[in-house]
Amino acid sequence: MNTRLKIICVLLGITYLFVCFHIISSSVSISIENSEEESTVSQNDSHNGTQYFFHIQPKGKEIFPIQLKNQKTGTIINCSTNYLKVKIDSPGNFWFISLLIFSIAILFITCYIPIITYKLIKSMVKNNIFETINIQRIRKIGYSLIIFFLIGVLIDFIQMTVVKELVELENYKIVFSINGVYIHLLFGLVILLFGEILQISLKMKEEVDLTV
């Protein structure tokens, strides 16, 4: 097997594990912060809410309603955003439970893909490239990424629907966007394409072996 392919496989595995670790650590950090906030709010006998993330767009021309101070120069910087996080009342348990189930599914896929990727890389490093089980593993990774994308779209749609029922902003409109998850669809399709190419290569290899 080509040494470069081994190196690429190893780097791919390390990169993906790093990304997964970053996602999980960020989620854990956010959960801890949310728990601390809810604990503080409860102690102050204040109101608890549910966090929602959603995308926004200006209703008219671009505006910069957010002002931040530049600590280096002391000047005020006018800022704009297209993504918000709010804590509001949930309109019902159905939406909350749906988001919880989808979040668990996302977590499962995030843990499942590295396991399959590790098995695939381990097999390739041992020069076992043209094997049916490797093609199946590649397809599983591709389908998992596409499912990840679909679940992400559903989560964003649910959050947008809930927020639209409860919130109306003065200069912004709440919109649906897949900017944060479309990359998973792209990678999933590319990986499935790679799997099909490998399948064709395997058939050609078997035909050559039979001919010889």
Write the SSE topology.
Layout: H1 3-43, E1 50-58, E2 66-69, E3 76-79, E4 83-88, H2 93-125, H3 132-166, E5 172-175, H4 182-211
Antiparallel strand pairs: 1-4, 1-5, 2-3
Helix pairs in contact: 1-2, 2-3, 3-4
Question: How would you sum up the major sheet?
Answer: 3 strands, antiparallel
| Shape summary | elongated
Number of beta-strand segments: 5
Strand residue content = 5-15%
Overall mean pLDDT: 76
Q: Structural class per helix/strand content?
A: alpha+beta
Integer-rounded radius of gyration: 23 Å
Share of helix, binned = 55-70%
Structure description:
Helix content is 66%, strand content 13%. It contains 4 helices and 5 strands; from the N terminus they run H-E-E-E-E-H-H-E-H. Strands 4-1-5 form a 3-stranded antiparallel sheet. Strands 2-3 form a two-stranded antiparallel sheet. Strand 2 (66-69) and strand 3 (76-79) form a beta hairpin. The longest helix has 41 residues, at 3-43. The protein is elongated, with a radius of gyration of 23 Å. Mean pLDDT is 76; it is low at 41-47.
Provide a short characterization of the protein structure:
With 212 residues, this protein is an alpha+beta fold. The chain is 66% helix and 13% strand. It is elongated, with a radius of gyration of 23 Å.
Which key phrases capture this entry?
212 residues; alpha+beta; 4 helices; 13% strand; elongated
